[in-house]
Specification:
Helix content is about 50%, strand content about 10%. Among the domains are: about 1-125 and about 430-460, no CATH class; about 230-325, no CATH class; about 475-579, Phosphohistidine domain (Glucose Oxidase, domain 1), CATH 3.50.30.10. Helix 7 runs parallel beside helix 16. By secondary structure, the protein is an alpha+beta fold.
């Protein structure tokens, strides 16, 4: 019997000098407990090191403000990843135009009561503001958002140069894993962490520039429909595949028989249409196979390893009429944004300084949004190349009976990999215990905010237990505006992208959280409502690119809303009304 009340295998003590943590934002990229291999390779100390360097290079902190022996920017509580709010608040003090209150609103909206910011004398040292202003100057010149295309091209080469992992020795697999992870991945990850802060600068400048107009809906409408957002590209590619299916009676018949096993049936079909679909799907996997659910993990369900996921999305998209093409709605949204920009410029024309501030902020936001998503896509692609090598190890050990499944490789810490390769049988019991422990933690819904000492894990509710009152007719559920537009339709509660077959045209997708493995489902939804997320979360960014009305941060949406409930989603105001 596993005792889950003790700290998880890789838990570390929370910071005493920076005591407030939240699941906001990070729950989207890490919805489940962190496995030991993920935390010791990607998160944990490796991630902390790059994150601290990013903050120092941006000018917001000095390295000696962090405890060298403790992880502080992140937190891990019974396996669940947290982000340090206390550190973000200090960033808000030092950032021109920001504040701790603005940081709180960014992460919590108006839904959570958090202990007020407690100022320290060193927090407001003007030297940090001077350094940040210098970084902002580099951003405005374009210097701070360069080199990302080169990184993306380098990641593509790493993918093309992938060796035959099935024939590699176990030592060669470990070498491939370390070479990619400690080589090209680390600097790209640090750039992405920097862009998290740079994007807050850009959106903060836009908020300030729009303040004289006293219209809170302007900001979300003005950060929509840019085009060229990397994380939305898979949705366009899947849509093209769905048009091949919709145009072919033979392909339609095979998908109608169920997305599971459809690839094998198409191979057996052997028609030119089937061969073309399979060829284009193989190209899709090569370009986008690194994306999936929980993609910062070591053994996630990616589109390369679990092709039934994107094929299920093609199956939903094939039911949509041609006028639901994501490119059409995105073009409309882009035209609306450009028209709105013109209106804002006209309203600010009488104040040249205000107009110049708006033009500068709007241009910077556009560059930053595209670059931020490119950096994340590149980091994930490199991470995927590293983890494919250790997944091959897991596959071998599962086949040999040392593991119960290939994913058990993620239950090993990085410092244990050499010993694992030397004697995999010796890890059988430890891995089995950690797997059982992990599965129990994975059933729990961790607290959204931790201030000091976390509540005992025995008091945490389970994710699937209805712990809240179901919304009734007339109730208005408040969240954060993510993508403008108003849509009415029936709710479809989706707990996993594998449930894609349940989503019908015209339905509103309601989920606890979404990550890149979910977002192509947005094309098949009339609107999206998400419990966990923020204005710059992945769900929000992709919904704005695809033109799908979206409200994020609707607390317990997947529990409060019942399947089939008629909802009106107002993505401009951030409200969901139960009809």
């Amino acid at each position: 019997m596993v005792d889950i009340t003790k700290p998880w295998v890789v838990d570390t003590p929370l910071s005493e000098q920076y005591p407030i943590y939240t699941r906001s934002n990070v729950a989207e990229v890490a919805p489940n407990p962190a496995t030991p291999l993920m935390w010791t390779c990607i998160g944990g100390l490796p991630g902390e090191h790059e994150w601290r360097r990013a903050l120092v290079e941006f000018g917001a902190f000095d390295l000696d403000e962090f405890d060298p022996d403790r992880i502080e920017i992140q937190g891990l509580v019974h396996g669940y990843l947290y982000l340090n709010v206390s550190i973000q608040r200090i960033f808000g003090v030092r950032m021109p135009g920001a504040s701790p209150d603005l940081i709180d609103r960014t992460y919590f909206g108006n839904r959570h009561v958090v202990r007020p910011y407690d100022p320290r004398p060193q927090d407001s040292d003007p030297k940090y503001t001077e350094r940040i202003m210098a970084s902002i100057g580099r951003l405005l010149s374009g210097e701070g958002v360069s080199g990302f295309d080169d990184d993306a091209a380098a990641a593509a080469r790493v993918r093309e140069e992938r060796p035959d992992l099935a024939s590699a020795s176990e030592r060669e697999l470990l070498e491939r894993f370390s070479t990619v992870l400690d080589g090209p991945y680390r600097p790209v990850a640090r750039k992405h962490y920097s862009l998290v802060y740079e994007s807050s600068v850009a959106t903060g400048m836009l908020t300030q520039a729009l303040a004289p107009l006293e219209d809170p809906s302007l900001e979300v409408r003005l950060i929509s429909g840019y085009g060229g957002v990397d994380s939305a590209a898979p949705s366009y590619a899947l849509w093209d595949l769905s048009r091949l299916v919709a145009a072919s009676p033979d392909l339609t018949a095979e998908f109608a028989a169920g997305a599971k096993g459809v690839a094998e049936r198409l191979r057996s079909l052997g028609t030119p249409e089937a061969d073309r679909f399979l060829e284009e799907f193989a190209t899709f996997q090569r370009r986008f196979g690194s994306r999936g659910t929980d993609e910062w993990e070591i053994c996630p369900q990616t589109w390369e390893t679990h092709p039934e996921l994107p094929l299920g999305m093609v199956d939903r998209m094939r039911l949509q009429p041609d006028d639901r093409a994501p490119g059409l709605r995105a073009a409309q949204l882009r035209a609306e944004r450009e028209e709105l920009e013109a209106q804002v410029r006209e309203r600010l024309a009488g104040t040249p300084e205000a107009l110049a501030a708006f033009d500068t902020a709007a241009a910077l936001v556009a560059r930053i949004m595209l670059t931020r998503e490119r950096s994340k896509t590149t980091a994930v692609r490199l991470m995927h190349e590293a983890r494919m090598a250790v997944q091959e190890l897991g596959r071998r050990y599962a086949a040999a009976g040392h593991f119960s499944r290939l994913e058990d490789i993620s239950m090993v810490r990085r410092d244990e990999l050499e010993a694992l390769v030397a004697d995999p049988a010796s890890f059988r019991d430890a891995v089995a215990e950690r797997r059982a422990w992990y599965e129990q933690l994975d059933e729990l819904d961790p607290p959204f905010i931790v201030d000091g000492t976390p509540p005992p894990v025995s008091t945490w509710p389970k994710k699937k237990e209805p712990a809240v009152e179901v919304a009734r007719s007339g109730d208005i559920l408040a969240g954060l505006a993510a993508c403008p537009g108003v849509v009415t339709g029936p709710a479809r509660i989706v707990h996993d992208p594998e449930d894609a077959a349940e989503l019908q045209p015209g339905e509103i997708l309601v989920a606890r959280m979404t990550d890149p493995g979910w977002t192509p489902l947005f094309v098949s939804a009339a609107a999206v409502v998400v419990s966990v997320g923020a204005t710059l979360s992945h769900a929000a960014i992709v919904s704005r690119e695809l033109g799908i009305p979206c409200v994020v941060g609707v607390e317990h949406a997947q529990k409060r809303i019942a399947d089939g409930t008629i909802l009106t989603v107002d993505g401009t105001a951030g409200l969901v009304t139960v009809a």
